[in-house]
Design brief:
CATH superfamily of the largest domain: Vaccinia Virus protein VP39
Shape: globular
Strand content: 15-25%
Number of helices: 13
Mean pLDDT: 89
Largest sheet: 7 strands, mixed
Bound molecules: S-adenosylmethionine
Strand order of the largest sheet: 3-2-1-4-5-7-6
CATH topology of the largest domain: Rossmann fold
Helix content: 25-40%
Length: 262
């Protein structure tokens, strides 16, 4: 499956296609230039994670460097707090929430505090090193727990909300379908699945070119969010009410899928 998902390019071809020098000024470029080839296979993670994102999410040394609020702030052009707040605006204190992938920095502890002691936060991530980091951050919050799982098979829990923050642009399209369907399955009637992610910016957006370059070199699955609505990845889209807001000249989006009441 992985070969097909990677447009018939082998992992070696994909790595060789990364013109890291173009991205030298960015954190991603610096780390990619420094560490373009995976040094150790991590068992039971999806092929795309091992092949494309080893340097960012699996290499323990880089994870230690990158797992900080300032990094997410830089990657999201200073809009991280604003976007995080837009996601949290959809979630009420006391609710149960599934977060289907770890986010670097303070995202999960902030969400745990937002939910409060009567809420429940379940975070999953497919990478063991990410699970360990997130567990450490959430240790002070008894309302939160972290498990290793793939977002396409998030378990059997049913939640008031699912908060999917910048995961979809990193996964191949076949996987996007699986993940979107699996997350939609996890909410109660009236419950919301919240996707915050990239979106096609306005044609005159000053950051469109650099974003396009970064996507073409480092994020091969991101541009499908420029071409398709998130709703289009859902098999049972008609069972939900969909709402979309875009931010920062269209570079980012929040999509809410709210399960219709029975
Ligand atoms: C949420 S995304 C990116 C978030 C944000 N850009 C950041 O800088 O943290 C990153 C996480 O997704 C995880 N991940 C990738 N594919 C996954 C999958 N299929 N299931 C669960 N977690 C996944 C990675 O292990 C990584 O921890």
């Amino acid at each position: 499956m992985d070969r097909a998902l990677l447009n018939n390019r082998t992992p070696d071809q994909l790595r060789a296609s990364i013109p890291a020098r173009i991205l030298a000024p960015t954190m991603a470029g610096i780390l990619t230039a420094y560490d373009v080839s995976p040094k150790g296979a991590v068992s039971e993670v999806p092929a795309y994670l091992q092949d494309i994102y080893y340097w960012a999410y699996l290499n323990p040394r880089n994870v230690e460097l990158l797992d900080r609020e300032s990094v997410v702030k830089i990657l999201l052009w200073g809009r991280h707090k604003h976007l995080r707040q837009k996601a949290f605006d959809e979630i009420a204190p006391g609710q149960s929430v599934l977060q289907p992938a770890h986010v670097y920095g303070e995202f999960s502890p902030t969400l745990a505090r937002h939910l409060g002691p009567s809420g429940q936060l379940d975070v999953i991530d497919v990478a063991p090193v990410q699970v360990a980091n997130c567990r450490r951050k959430l240790a002070p919050y008894p309302q939160a727990s972290v498990h290793r799982a793939d977002a396409s098979q998030p378990g059997t829990g049913i939640y008031d909300a699912v908060c999917c923050y910048f995961l979809l642009h990193e996964i191949p399209d076949d996987y996007k379908h699986l993940v979107v369907d699996a997350l939609l399955d996890r909410v109660v009637p009236g419950g919301k699945v919240i996707f915050v992610d990239y979106h096609k910016p306005h044609w005159a957006h000053p950051l469109k070119l650099i974003t396009s370059l970064v996507f073409d070199t480092l994020e091969p699955f991101a541009k499908s969010l420029w071409r398709s609505e998130i709703m289009e990845f859902a098999k049972n889209a008609d069972q939900f009410n969909w709402r979309k807001e875009t931010y920062f000249g269209g570079l980012f989006q929040k999509v809410i899928a709210q399960r219709q009441e029975e």
